[in-house]
Amino acid sequence: MAITNLKEGALTRHLHGRFGTALLLVSLLVGISLLTRIVFLIYSFSNVDVSVGNLLGIFLFGFFYDLVNAAYFIIPMMLYLWLAPQRIYGKRWHGVVLIVLVTLFTFLLLFNAVAEWFFWEEFNTRYNFIAVDYLVYTNEVLGNIQQSYPIAWIVTGLVVLCALIVVPLARFVKRLPAGEPMRFKKRSVVFLGYAVLPVLLYFTVNSKYHQFSNNAYVNELSGNGMYELFAAYLNNELSYDQFYKTMSQETGFRDVREMIRTPEATFVNDHPEDISRRIAHTGDEKHLNVVLISVESLSGEFMNAFGSTLNITPFLDSLAQHSLFFTNLYATGTRTVRGLEALSLCVPPTPGQSIVRRPNNENLFSLGRVFAEKGYETKYIYGGYGYFDNMNYFFANNGYKVVDREELADNEIDYENIWGVADENLFTLAMREIDKTVQNNKPVFAHVMTTSNHRPYTYPEGRIDIPSHTGREGAVKYTDYAIGDFIRKARKKPWFDSTVFVIVADHCASSAGKSELPINKYHIPLLVYSPANIPPAKMERMMSQIDLGPTLLGLLNFSYVSKFYGYDIFQLEPGRERVFISTYQNLGFIHDNKMIVLSPQRKLETFNVTLGSDKLTPTAEDKALEEQAIAWYQTASYAFKNGLMK
Fold first, then answer.
1. Which residues constitute the domain of residue 222?
2. Phi, psi of 525, deg, nearest 5
3. Which of 404, 415, 577, 586 lies at 20 to 30 Å from 260 by C-alpha?
4. pLDDT confidence tier of residue 180, bands split at 50, 70 and 90
5. CA-to-CA separations, 365 to 100, 361, 456, 589, in angstroms, rounded
6. Which residues cross the membrane (predicted)?
7. Pick from 573, 607, 632: which residue ends a domain?
8. Percent helix, strand, coil in the chain (nearest 5)?
9. Does the pLDDT value for residue 562 go beyond 60?
10. How many CB atoms lie within 10 A of CB 46?
11. Strands 499-505 and 579-582
12. Does residue 606 have a known ligand-binding role?
């Protein structure tokens, strides 16, 4: 924006020619992007590894990606300037048209900068897969924005700021049509010369170039938000075989069949690509009701049991003392759909989009199907509209009956926001559905997904001592209150003593850390509460979220044929524990205090890792561990792609 302070003569020379307006937009984009980068750097300074190399990288790589983004951004303007006939372009009034166009593009750049700020504040990252998903579900996202932020004031501020930028430029832009005429042939040469640039950039530049540091914040600051949104959209699904380090399928499945073996399981056949095992337990099966509550964004660090001093989970902290409490469990991803995938399919995260959102995800082997085969009525109960994130379709086609907010009458809703009804109303719906099934003399498996612990963090007033719409801590405490209210009401039900309550998070509230895959940002709680059936205890062994399903079925003493990749932790020999954590591109495999990270471009890194910390220390390669990581992730991706999970 320093361009606004240039003297008229210098600015006129800089903008001289028909395509000067496009050059002006490039300058504005680079200037606004630079200021945005500086603001993000100041805001996140405590998390940035400050060094001369990192600071140079932030601004040099940042400038490069700003220019790359500018090459794409000015395409509409370049098309207009190329095709506009000289008889129109040369008119004096056409200067006003150019001013209007500059104003619109400037407002768009400013609006994007503000949107990036709110995205950074929430996720500590540039636009990514989450932003792409949000563009798909515009109703929820626009509603969330409207309920979370003072939109009218923000837009007013942007209009004023836009005017402060454009007004000093207006007299220069207005004079551009009076410049030397440019015939169509000449401007076609200019445009075609320019058009080569975005095409060349499309095939030669990707978002991995700025991943030069071991500090995630440095890498994110080095990028450009608009470009990252474009890149995330193009890479919505990633082929494991194309982008990641591989081994032969024969070796991968041979290794997985060996690693997945547990004492209670025997393979049903010798087919090299079939991991189906017969899980056999002695004694009677316990056909208890199961209520699985997956809580939105419930980080382990919120609970006093894990060191919090905020006292925002008083009920869960109390319940943990009367539950089978798993203290070392890790989510597989950073999105609700990734958590739902892990809890229902019990498979490692595959690169790109969650299976919940992918095509051809019908008739998969799921936790709901196992319960259905045992005579249960299986239900997925959600407080929002289940079309969001493809939840309705996924669960309805994988062994569950879907029940969402449409089943609630208006007078049953105390409060709602764009994401869903208040959690207390969700649990009213869940209680009704459980009653209905039990009264029909059938056991029930109900997977209940909460929504209240999500921006805009609103809930009914008067339930807790933190006012609504004040932040994450209030939303966490309200969800804790709602779960407590549900459990207390359930204790009065005739089916309470024959029910197992499972409380787990879908993912953590934040996944940002100094490393790309900070293990502490995947740590989630798991409580299994059934006072008449399961004695209180602590399970402190390391577990993956995909182990919950097999472990739960083991607690019920179920025998069944399994295609799950997860372990029953009580059957697994000590020392074999492993964890899978991921973003949409980076795949982490943790075993024995080491983490293998698989990334696109067939990149593989080995780190020493300390549970409870976000610090990763590069270490020497571990061939055996690398092969394990590749085998798990490659075979899971292959199994889904080739229908082996069905």
1. 2-234
2. -85, 155
3. 586
4. confident
5. 56, 10, 35, 23
6. 21-43, 55-83, 95-120, 151-169, 189-205
7. 573
8. 50, 15, 35
9. yes
10. 7
11. unpaired
12. no
Tokens of 200: 């060349």
d(CA 58, CA 56): 5
Is 62 contained in some domain? yes
CB atoms within 10 A of CB 194: 16
Eight-state DSSP code of residue 17: S
Structure confidence at residue 225 (pLDDT): 87
Mark whether 311 and 221 lie in a shared domain: no
How many residues are recorded in the chain? 646
Number of folded domains that form the chain: 2
- What is the sign of the dihedral through the CA atoms of 26, 32, 38 and 40? negative
Are 187 and 316 contained in the same domain?
Answer: no
Q: Which of 29-43, 61-75, 83-97, 463-477 has the lowest mean pLDDT?
A: 83-97
Looking at residue 11, its pLDDT comes to 43
53-58 mean pLDDT: 93
313 and 205 together in one domain: no
- In a domain, residue 249? The reply is no
Query: CATH number, domain at 412?
Result: 3.40.720.10
Taking the CB of residue 7, how many other CB atoms lie within 10 A of it?
7
% of residues, the chain, pLDDT over 70: 93
> CA distances (Å), 120 to each of 159, 509, 563, in order?
22, 14, 39
CA distance 259 to 628: 8
Same domain as 327, residue 470: yes
- Alpha-carbon distance 40 to 214, whole Å? 18
Distances (CA, A) of 544 to 342, 551, 613, 631: 9, 11, 17, 17
Within this chain, do residues 439 and 320 fall inside the same structural domain, yes or no?
yes
Does 350 appear as a known binding residue?
A: no
Tell me, yes or no, whether 77 and 216 share the same domain.
yes
Q: Any binding-site annotation on 336? A: yes
Query: pLDDT at position 511, please?
Result: 66
- State the SS3 of 129-158: HHHHHHHHCHHHHHHHHHHHCCHHHHHHHH
Clarify whether residues 346 and 451 are in a common domain. yes
pLDDT tens across 469-501, in order?
899 999 999 999 999 999 999 999 999 999 999
> Which one of the listed residues 336, 350, 437, 479 is annotated catalytic?
336
Give one DSSP letter per residue of 381-423, joined into a string. Answer: EESS-TTGGGHHHHHHTTT-EEE-GGGS-GGG-S-EETTEE-H
**Are 394 and 356 a contacting pair, CB within 8 Å?**
yes
User: Does 299 map to a domain?
Assistant: yes
Query: Residue 9: is its pLDDT beyond 60?
Result: no
Q: Is 183 left (phi over 0), alpha (psi -120 to 50) or beta?
A: beta
Res 1 pLDDT > 90: no
**pLDDT single digits (tens) 388-407:** 788 999 999 999 999 999 99
Q: Would the pTM of this model clear 0.90, i.e. be above it? A: no
Kindly report the backbone phi and psi dihedral angles of residue 502, in degrees, each rounded to the nearest multiple of 5, phi listed first.
-115, 120
Residues 435-445 pLDDT 10s: 999 999 999 99
What per-residue confidence (pLDDT) applies to 175?
Answer: 80
Identify the domain boundary among 573, 602, 629: 573
199 and 305 in a single domain? The answer is: no
Examine residue 604 and state whether it is found in any structural domain, yes or no: no
The question of whether 336 is a catalytic residue gets the answer yes
- Cα–Cα distance measured from residue 265 to residue 570, given in angstroms and rounded to the nearest whole number: 13
